[in-house]
Design a protein that fits this description.
This protein is mostly helical. The protein is built from three helices and no strands.
Length: 83
């Protein structure tokens, strides 16, 4: 028969060991193996992805400034002229 005990602290571990020793019960201490963590390498962003992210960040900054009233929106004619 096997009984697995997982104490949370060193104090609990010592108490369990002392209890089993007092009852003359044979026991072994099994050490847990360390978890294996895999790290994923980040791939480089392409030029197109960088352009999209840059445009998105500029849009977000403009929206923040617009809500604070620091920037006025452009008219449709100004936008068309810039394109």
């Amino acid at each position: 028969m096997k009984l697995i005990v997982k104490p949370k602290t060193k104090k609990q571990e010592k108490a369990v060991k002392a209890f089993l020793d007092n009852l003359n019960v044979e026991f072994t201490i099994a050490e847990e193996e360390a978890a294996v963590y895999k790290t994923i390498l980040k791939k480089q962003k392409t030029k197109k992805e960088k352009q999209i992210l840059d445009g998105l960040s500029q849009s977000v900054e403009f929206a923040k400034k617009f809500t604070k009233g620091k920037v006025k929106a452009k008219s449709i004619n100004q936008l068309l002229n810039e394109l």
